[in-house]
Structure formats: C-alpha cells, structure tokens
C-alpha cells in the first residue's frame, strides 16, 4: 500500500494485509465535518439562550395571548414546597425542576427555561446569543454550500451517500447488525449511515436554514411563500426547534455508534482520512481502497 | 519509526476526544468572557451582523413589502412590551390633557425644522396596514396600524442631501444609569425611513394608540423587529452620524448589545 507498511515488523505486516488502512474520508469531508461540529455546537447553545427569551412554541402566524395556540411551554411556578420547574407538551405537564424551568447551583436556583450549562452565554443575554447564533449560521450555511459543491464534483454524494438497490436490500440485516452493535468496517458507508447522513445533510440542515429565514421579517418580504410553506412564522419557529431536537438525537446516536464501532479508528478516519478495515474476505471494502 | 508514529497518533486522538468532552462538561461559562459589548471576541463575531445586514439589503432592496393581513387575521389585542406605562412626570402632564400640548419635533439635517401637533399629523394623508409584529424575543402578533407615512413628514421638513439616518427620541425612561435617566431611542437609515410601510402610527386596531402601545405616536418599521419601532415619540432627528448619541450604537437596545439592523 505505501512505504510505511514495508517498514513494519512481520507481525504488523500481517495485520496491515489482513486489515488494511484505506483512505476513506476526503479532505473536504473532514474539514466540513469539523466546521459543522463547531458551528452546530455554538448554534445549539446560543439557540437555547434565544429560546429562553420566550420559552413557548406556537402553531400559526402569531403567538396566542388572547387565545391558546401554545404546544410547548417551559416555566416555573410557586408551590407549597417551593418553586418548581415545569414543561407543558400538548397540554401534558411534566415536573422538570433542576433542568427545565427552574435550575441553578444549590441556593442560587432561578427561573430559566434551559439551564445555564446548556446556553451560551451561560447567563441570559438575548442580544449576545443572537450575535453568536447568526455568526455560526453563516458558518453552517457556507460550509453546507461548499460541501455540496465539492461533493458533487468529486463524486462523494454519488459514490458514498446515494443509497443503491443493494443498500435497500441489506437494510433489514443492517438494522439487526446495528441493534447488536456488530459493525463491519469497510471503505463504504453502510445503509443506515447513508440514510442518516443523507437525511441530516439534505433534509434537516436545509430545513433548519429555511425555517430560520422564515422567521425573519426582512426575508419574509423577499420569500413570502417560505413562511406560508411552513404554515406561519410561529410554526416555522416550532419546526426550527423540532429539527434542533432531531439533530441532538442524531448527535447522541452518532456518538454511541463511534464509541461502539471503535473510537480510535473512527476518529482517525475523520481527522486523517485513513480507516482500518476488516479483513478483505469479511467485507466488501477492497474496491474503494486508495 | 512507523511504530512510534502510530502510538503517538493514537495518543493524540484519545487525548483530543477527552479534551473535547472535557470542554463540553465544564459548562458554557467558558465562553462568557470575551462576549461583552466591546470585547475582542464579541467584536469579531459582530462582523457577521454587517454581512447579515448587507445580504438582507441586497435581497430585499429598497421597497420590498411586508405581508399585509386581513381584518379576519386580527384575533387578539396587540401585546404591549418594554415600557408600558411611562412614569416620567412630563409624560403624565401630556397624558393628563390628552396630548393636546404634545408636539413632534423634527430636527437635525433638514431645511425646515417642524413642530407638529397630533392634529397636524392626523390631517396629513394616512396609511392603514394590518401587519405582523415580530418581537426579538420570538413572539408575533397581528394588528392594524394607522398613521402618517414617515416619508411625508421628511418631505415636509426637506431632508438635506448628506443625511443618512433618522433617530427617534422618546419620552419614556427605560433605564437608569449613574449619569441619570436613560430615555428610549432608536435609529433607522433613510431607506427604511422612506419605505412605503414605515409610518408614524397614532391608531391601533381602529382606536387611538393606547398608552401601553406608545401613545401618542410610535414608529412602525415593518421589515424589522419590534425594538426598532420606538414608542412615545417626542423628536425625530435627521443626521448623518449617531455615534455621538447614547452608547454610540444607534439605540437603547443596540447599546445593550443588540444588532442595529434587526431584519432577522
């Protein structure tokens, strides 16, 4: 494969031949991955600070004050046992004291929707959170555009992400393998990887940007249909929040999969590009190796 | 050689992942320093505000119109926000005789400074629009606003060619500092000032503008968020520079770290 392999001891030679390193992630993929990771981290935490300014979600064009179109509300109430935090979802109330609605260090608890550790800045500051949020909104959008162009030109989308007929046939077995945390390490993404990365990159992130624009009174004058597609400004805000929840769930599963599949190998491939595959007989990796 | 490199890289990867999770676990006050108004990091991030403003101007142009709704879309009273009952003695005097002593001053870079009574404004051509008020906090309310287009007032005062901004000065004290009371103020550029939907509103939902919504006169700037639409107006100053006023950032909320152009 390369000169480094020939310099190894015979024992390592055997490992290298049986489980070869392949060049799996291009520089574009690695760079954009980490830009997204950073941008989404800051967007999430500044976004939760922005949400704290009005910890309610509505359906429709406007927020109901004279009528009820609230579907989610996070707040605090006084009870005989002291203040409690609550979260109302579709009319069902959950006690979320300590995390949502009422939180803080012991003796310094305060009414706040999302807790201090989950927001940037840690204190409530809508103006500053908006500065952080819109800065990283540009980073996210520019990165998505750069990735889309690069991945169209270098074939990453067609070669690595587009699900093929065989992928769909393998789907049930792939789901079963994931459920048992049994992984095949090959050059190519497995079916669930293709589907989940595809949904994030082509559905969730674009929807996040579009629902963000639909909330802008200035962009609403240019793209009035956008606010209509999302069934009103407040519905767009609710969808924006909902996609945030889906992206956080994706992140949690993504981390779980990285840990289960071998964090060193997975991290190496997204930092250096090189990925150690299973022995060629047990996988279909050979065709893509560099 | 190769073996050594392999180990150090592995150590690096493990260390990097531990470092990353450590940064996350240590909480987000890690980013608090540097984010205050005037701090270096904050100022760097604020460069994006300029980009955001330019992008919106490029796409929306001078006269793109905010959506106007129908009477059926008005389902609730307009929600008041910010100062809803000014406690300034001068304001109470004006309110006591129904603003008959109130005057709107138009000053600064104009050929003919004006002093307009409420009646003067109400006898000028009016515009009524049902629009959606979007607050920076995230909520929205649809309401009907009636007032005189700001462009007509500016034309009557005859704006000098070097002017760039309109500054709204208000009657209400919103904050107190060591150097005294801080009255609300805000600014927009002449493009938004001359926008067809930018009005000085004296009517709300077919009634005179109530105190909590800014009586006797407030601005409506429909392509921006609520904090750009000052209430309790007393003076309109036409200028080419607002950096000498207040905190120098063009408005009360801007001085407190909010972006000057609030189109998003």
Automatic annotation (TrEMBL), chain B:
The organism's place on the tree of life at top rank: Bacteria
Domain Oxidoreductase molybdopterin-binding: 98-241
InterPro entries: OxRdtase_Mopterin-bd_dom, OxRdtase_Mopterin-bd_sf, TAT_signal
Spans traversing the lipid bilayer: none
Annotated Gene3D superfamilies: Oxidoreductase, molybdopterin-binding domain (3.90.420.10)
A Pfam family matched in the record: Oxidored_molyb
Alphabetized SUPFAM superfamilies for the sequence: Oxidoreductase molybdopterin-binding domain
Listed name of the protein: Molybdopterin oxidoreductase
Annotated source species: Manganibacter manganicus
């Amino acid at each position: 494969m390369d000169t480094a392999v020939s310099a190894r001891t015979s024992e390592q030679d055997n490992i290298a031949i049986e489980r070869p390193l392949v060049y799996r992630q291009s520089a574009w993929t690695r760079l954009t991955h980490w830009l997204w990771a950073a941008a989404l981290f800051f967007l999430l935490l500044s976004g939760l600070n922005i949400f704290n300014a009005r910890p309610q979600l509505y359906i429709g064009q406007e927020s109901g004050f004279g009528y009820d179109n609230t579907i989610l509300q996070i707040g605090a109430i006084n009870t005989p046992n002291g203040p409690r935090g609550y979260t109302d979802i579709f009319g069902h109330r959950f006690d979320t004291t300590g995390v949502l609605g009422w939180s803080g260090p012991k003796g310094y608890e305060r009414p706040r929707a999302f807790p201090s550790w989950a927001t940037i800045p840690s204190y409530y500051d809508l103006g500053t959170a908006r500065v952080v949020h819109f800065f990283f909104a540009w980073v996210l959008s520019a990165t998505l555009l750069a990735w889309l162009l690069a991945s169209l030109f270098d074939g990453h989308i067609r070669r690595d992400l587009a699900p093929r007929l065989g992928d769909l046939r393998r789907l049930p077995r792939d789901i079963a393998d994931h459920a048992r945390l049994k992984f095949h390490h090959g050059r190519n993404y497995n079916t669930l990887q293709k589907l989940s990365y595809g949904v994030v990159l082509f559905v969730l992130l674009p929807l996040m940007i579009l629902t963000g624009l639909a909330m802008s009174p200035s962009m609403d004058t240019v793209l009035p249909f956008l606010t209509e597609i999302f069934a009103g400004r407040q519905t767009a805000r609710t969808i924006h929040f909902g996609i945030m929840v889906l992206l956080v769930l994706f992140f949690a599963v993504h981390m779980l999969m990285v840990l289960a599949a071998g964090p060193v190998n997975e991290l190496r491939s997204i930092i250096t590009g090189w990925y150690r595959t299973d022995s060629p007989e047990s996988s279909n990796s050979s065709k893509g190796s560099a | 050689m190769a073996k050594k490199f392999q180990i150090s890289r592995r150590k690096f990867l493990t260390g990097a992942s531990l470092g990353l999770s450590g940064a996350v676990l240590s909480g987000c006050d890690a980013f608090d320093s540097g984010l205050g108004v005037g701090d270096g990091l904050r100022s760097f991030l604020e460069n994006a505000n300029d980009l955001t403003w330019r992008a919106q101007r490029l796409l929306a142009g001078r006269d793109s119109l905010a959506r106007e709704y129908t009477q059926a879309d008005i389902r609730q009273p307009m929600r008041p926000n910010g100062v809803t009952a000014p406690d300034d003695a001068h304001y109470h005097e004006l309110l006591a005789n129904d603003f008959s002593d109130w005057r709107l001053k138009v000053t600064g870079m104009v050929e003919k400074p004006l002093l307009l009574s409420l009646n003067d404004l109400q006898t000028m051509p009016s515009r009524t629009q049902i629009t959606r008020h979007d607050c920076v906090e995230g909520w929205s309310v649809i309401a009907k606003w009636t007032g005189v287009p700001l462009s007509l007032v500016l034309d009557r005062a005859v704006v000098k060619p070097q002017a760039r901004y309109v500054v709204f000065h208000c009657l209400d004290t919103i904050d107190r500092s060591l150097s005294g009371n801080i009255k609300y103020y805000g600014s927009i550029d002449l493009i938004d000032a001359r926008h067809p939907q930018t009005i000085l509103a004296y009517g709300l939902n077919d009634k005179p503008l109530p105190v909590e919504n800014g009586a006797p006169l407030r601005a409506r700037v429909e392509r921006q968020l609520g904090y750009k639409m000052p209430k309790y107006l007393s003076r309109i100053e036409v200028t080419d520079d607002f950096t000498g006023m207040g905190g120098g950032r063009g408005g009360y909320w801007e001085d407190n770290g909010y972006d000057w152009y609030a189109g998003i």
